[in-house]
Each structure stands twice: as structure tokens, then as C-alpha cells.
Write a structure and sequence with these properties.
Layout (H helix, E strand, L loop, with lengths): L3 H14 L8 E6 L2 E8 L2 H12 L6 E8 L9 H14 L8 E6 L2 E8 L2 H11 L7 E4 L2 E2 L8 H11 L8 E6 L2 E8 L2 H12 L6 E4 L2 E2 L2 H4 L2
Parallel strand pairs: 2-3, 5-6, 5-7, 9-10, 9-11
Antiparallel strand pairs: 1-2, 4-5, 8-9
Helix pairs in contact: 1-2
Length: about 220
């Protein structure tokens, strides 16, 4: 098992590997496998890129995100300009049904609300706007439209796990309560946890996913 110092070094190297990021702007500390990211960046996209980079590192159990987004005076936009840019970005993204999403902007903080058919539409909405100048944070409160649950949905999700190269389906259990999928068990990394969650979201009729998966390399060492 990696020590905290090894994890810290690996996270720092992973951040340096990202062309979008300036490693000097981001601080990394680790305690008991929990990574804290700190510092200041000029775009929300860099903040999310740093978190995504840290999640890829083996041994990371959780992430505390304390990176602040500070827009320079020359790039600063008022909320009206940001709202217009967000609306246009959603409109021109073919993977997003912009007419179903409402936008609110306050001090650069963008809140999205509304209702869509699939979780991927909700995810695409955030991806479409996170690179926009002036956006400090995105709160995606878009919900999934209720629809009939597919027959044998837990088995379908397990089958999706089995098809996925990064997921060990034998270590994950799926429980369906109403239209919510509850995932329990063990995974080896944040990436595997997120891949499993994404697979569950893709199941027809699932409009909520509760991810209780634990990250622990040792759970795989004895099987």
C-alpha cells in the first residue's frame, strides 16, 4: 500500500502531466489517503481538471477540494454576459436540450435547473459551460425525468459492469429501491467508482444513484 508521501508525489506528477494546469498554482497535501487540493486558478475548468487528475492516482481514497477560482480584472464579465454565454453554449451543444434547462448566474456562480431524460444530458450541460470565461463554479441541479424502470434492471447494470474494462463486477453489488440504484462493495480507484456510477445512471428508469463504493486496494489483494 502506498504511503501518503508517495500518493502526494504521484498526484503532483499527475497534475504536472495536464497541459491545462500550472502545477505551481496548486497545492497538494495527503493524510490517510485523503488528498486536499488548494491554491488559486483562473478558470473553473482548471479547478475540475485538477480534481480529475487527482482521482486517477492509485491509492487516493477521497478528495477535499479547496481550490479557488479567481478571474483577472481584464477577463472579468458581469453576470448578464456570463448568462448569455452560458445560454449560447448550451444552445449550440447538440448533446444538450437547452430548452429544458434554466440558467441563473450570481457573482460568476452558475446554477442550472430543469429536467432532462438522461444523466448524460445533465453531465453534458456542465461540460459545455465549464470552460467559459467568467464562470467561477457550476451548480448542476438538473433532475432526471421519472420513467418506468426497466425489467431486471439490477442484472442489466451488473452486465454493464462486466462489459466494462475498468470495472471488477464481482466486487460490486447493486440494489434497486424505487428508481434509485444503490452501489455497495469495493473498487480500486476513483476512476473505477465513477465508471460504475456512470454505468448505473445509464440504466433505463434509474433517476438516482447512491454510490457507497469503498476504495481499497487491500480488498483485492486476497482474492
Amino acid at each position: 500500500m502506498k504511503t501518503d508521501i508517495q500518493i502526494q508525489q504521484d498526484v503532483m506528477e499527475q497534475i504536472k502531466w495536464q497541459s491545462l494546469l500550472n502545477a505551481a498554482e496548486i497545492g497538494v497535501s495527503v493524510k490517510d489517503g485523503i488528498v486536499t487540493l488548494s491554491g488559486h486558478v483562473d478558470t473553473y475548468a482548471k479547478k475540475t481538471a485538477a480534481e480529475k487528475a487527482a482521482k486517477k492516482v492509485k491509492g487516493v481514497k477521497a478528495i477535499a477540494e479547496e481550490i479557488c477560482v479567481g478571474i483577472s480584472t481584464s477577463d472579468k464579465k458581469n453576470d448578464g454576459e456570463i448568462a448569455e454565454a452560458v445560454a449560447n453554449a448550451l444552445k449550440w451543444n447538440s448533446a444538450v436540450k437547452d430548452e429544458k434547462i434554466k440558467i441563473k448566474v450570481e457573482d460568476g456562480f452558475v446554477t442550472l435547473t430543469g429536467e432532462v431524460e438522461w444523466d448524460i444530458e445533465r453531465t453534458n450541460a456542465t461540460d459545455a459551460i465549464k470552460n467559459l470565461t467568467g464562470v467561477v463554479m457550476v451548480f448542476n441541479l438538473v433532475t432526471i425525468k421519472p420513467k418506468p424502470l426497466a425489467e431486471n434492471v439490477s442484472q442489466k447494470i451488473q452486465a454493464a459492469f462486466a462489459r466494462h474494462a475498468s470495472i471488477d463486477a464481482s466486487k460490486i453489488k447493486v440494489e434497486i429501491v424505487g428508481n434509485k440504484a444503490i452501489l455497495t462493495g469495493y473498487v480500486r480507484s476513483f476512476v473505477e467508482s465513477e465508471d460504475a456510477e456512470a454505468a448505473a445512471w445509464a440504466a433505463p428508469g434509474v433517476n438516482a444513484v447512491e454510490n457507497k463504493l469503498e476504495i481499497g486496494e487491500e480488498e483485492f489483494a486476497y482474492n
